[in-house]
Design a protein that fits this description.
146 residues, alpha+beta, 4-stranded mixed sheet, 3-stranded antiparallel sheet, 7 strands, 18% helix
């Protein structure tokens, strides 16, 4: 992951969860389109900032529950990605993955919408470029096919 030279103003610790259906479709969240919001208007994974003293796993589980009402029975570590914004803020995102149990409903509690999207249809959605790599890693970890 490229790190931009220059002063680092802060490090934001973020966790996000790839929720995979049995067919490999992933739960995407359509983010609000608000000025100043990172990745505004894009489709991404449920997630958010860690509370002080909160583990990244606890953060991922909490954010998933808060944003979708889904209480994942088992959440597994996937990978960590780091990027630097123009203002020097470092975002360290820890990604997790889980299988959707098919029983609990998901409810959009944050953003504009939630949808399970097949990997083959992902090009029809405005999503951050790095999400494709996360998606592929989650599919590989789950032993799913695209």
């Amino acid at each position: 992951m490229p790190v931009k030279e220059g002063p680092i103003s802060s490090i934001d610790m973020v966790a996000a969860t790839a929720v995979l259906r049995q067919d490999g479709a992933m739960l995407l969240q359509h983010r609000d389109n608000k000025p100043g919001l990172r990745a505004a208007g894009l489709w991404g994974l449920p997630g958010g900032h860690a509370e002080p003293g909160e583990s990244m796993l606890d953060c991922a589980r909490r954010e998933l529950r808060e944003e979708t009402d889904y209480d994942a029975p088992e959440v597994r570590f996937l990978l960590t990605f780091e990027s630097v914004d123009e203002d020097g803020t470092v975002y360290r995102v820890t990604y997790f993955w889980c299988r959707y149990d098919g029983l609990q409903p998901v409810t959009c509690r944050e953003g504009q919408a939630l949808a399970f999207v097949k990997r083959s249809e992902a090009g029809n959605y405005p999503i951050p470029n790095n999400l494709f790599g996360v998606w592929d890693a989650a599919l590989a970890a789950a032993g799913a096919t695209t």
